[in-house]
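User: For my dataset I need records formatted as: sequence, then structure tokens, nothing else. Please produce one.
Assistant:
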Amino acid sequence: MAGEQLRVTEGDARGERLVVEVDLLIGRAAEKSEGRLGDDPEISRRHAKASRGTDGELILEDLGSANGTFVN
């Protein structure tokens, strides 16, 4: 489903919404600015990855971050 978004609920980027159409690295080392979430120091360099499954479902994978990744 292409309508879902990730909503940031904590930290410097609280309230931001991320639209994921292709793989998106989330963390301070992210190439795309939206993935850096304001360079929040609570975010690991490679914190999580958001992507789309083969059927279009949104997948969020923690990449071993120090502070964890939470859904809902």
